[in-house]
Amino acid sequence: NKQVILRDYVTGFPKESDMQLVTAATTELKLPEGSNGVLVKNLYLSCDPYMRGRMTKREPGSYVGCFVPGSPITGYGVAKVLESGDPKFKEGDFVWGMTGWEEYSLITATQALFKIHDIDVPLSYYTGILGMPGITAYAGFHEVCSPKKGETVFVSAASGAVGQLVGQFAKLLGCCVVGSAGSKEKVDLLRNKFGFDEAFNYKEEPNLDAALKRYFPEGIDIYFENVGGKMLDAVLLNMRMNGRIAICGMISQYNLEQTEGVHNLMSLISKQVRMQGFVAFSYYHLYGKFLETVLPAIKEGKIIYVEDVVEGLESAPGALAGLFAGRNVGKQVVLVSRD
Ligand code: NDP
Question: Do residue 277 and residue 144 come from a single domain?
Fold first, then answer.
């Protein structure tokens, strides 16, 4: 059973060499007698920015625990059930949820697994648009942002797993959407593929406040925050009355020893802006409703989805580290096995 382990806790930017491909010594891959878990074959693994936090030693009690050095990394993935001691699953079922960065996993926490019913779409989609990032975008936009038709929406890290969907949900509702991303290729995707009204490369904007004033002369009603830091500060200066800011993530801060200060929070008062953080797993009860909306939209071509798939477990460490350098174009997925 090949596995990707975390070698040791990480400080600063994660590197490919912080992780290592090993072959586990276990001889028999079998569900233990009497287990109510499942033995799965992993097909696709998801690289997600939150995993960076799990690479740092944390005090117990933080909302997701840290990885254990020397043990396989865990994260979201799509897998095929080989053996099941849980009546909810049977051999041959496809599932998505928490699994290991390895060829085969014994999953005991089956409450964190979802059975996949619709396989008319690529299975890898359940690591992204039909999995955790999809619910994040859907709940973050529809539940946290309280959007209304015609409003102006700004999305940062807009070409990524979450951002590309938030922008499209906003367009479907009839909002005016602008996104920021870190390369020309990504900006072109936003404009030409995902249907954003406008997009810009934040790395080429010496003054983010001026850039936002250019794209939002009347101000921003909704900001979907994925990056934090200087971008948030600039957005705070450009919010409209009664605007909403959904704090989904702050990837620009995850590798810093000390997070940057935010200076313009006072504008929340005069503009009466609501700023709210959220986590996807508080909205998993909406998963059924979410699928009913999103699956048909994918099949009818109303939502476009771009993923960046690398092949083989050995490519996983580089792919995960690449998120923090913006190397992924679309949702970062690792293909472990096609079946
Ligand atoms: P992405 O697919 O967007 O990948 C990460 C992207 O972030 C990179 O491609 C890069 O794009 C951008 N980025 C990296 N470093 C920086 C930086 N210093 N400044 C600005 N942008 C940077 O990831 P996801 O869509 O999966 O996640 C997006 C955000 O949502 C993250 O902050 C993540 O933590 C958060 N999240 C939160 C969840 C929740 O429950 N609250 C659940 C899932 C995700 P570029 O080239 O454009 O810079």
Answer: yes
Number of domains in the chain: 2
Quick: pLDDT tens for 85-104.
999 999 999 999 999 999 99
Query: What type of residue sits at position 48?
Result: D
Type of residue numbered 197:
D
Q: State which residues form the domain around 196.
A: 132-281
Tens of pLDDT, residues 271-282:
999 999 999 999
CB under 6 Å to ligand 1: residues?
48-50, 133, 136, 157, 159-163, 181-183, 186, 226-227, 248-252, 278-280, 323-324, 326, 328, 331-332
CA trace torsion 89, 91, 95, 97 (10° rounding): 70
Pairwise CA distance, residues 331 & 291, whole Å: 18
Q: Which atom of ligand 1 is nearest to the CA of 278?
A: 41
Instruction: Name the amino acid, one letter, at 2.
Output: K
- Radius of gyration, alpha carbons of the chain: 20
Using one digit for the tens of pLDDT, what is the confidence trace for 228-239? 999 999 999 999
* Interface predicted TM-score (ipTM): 0.99
153 and 268 belong to one structural domain: yes
Residues 24/75, Cβ–Cβ less than 8 Å? no
Residue 291: pLDDT over 80 = yes
Q: Are 263 and 156 members of one domain?
A: yes
CATH of the domain at 137: 3.40.50.720
- Statement: the pTM of the whole predicted model exceeds 0.90: yes
| Other beta carbons less than 10 A from residue 284's beta carbon | 14
Q: How far apart are the first and last CA of the chain?
A: 16
CATH number at residue 98: 3.90.180.10
d(CA 248, CA 112): 21
Rounded Cα gap, residues 109 and 114, in angstroms: 11
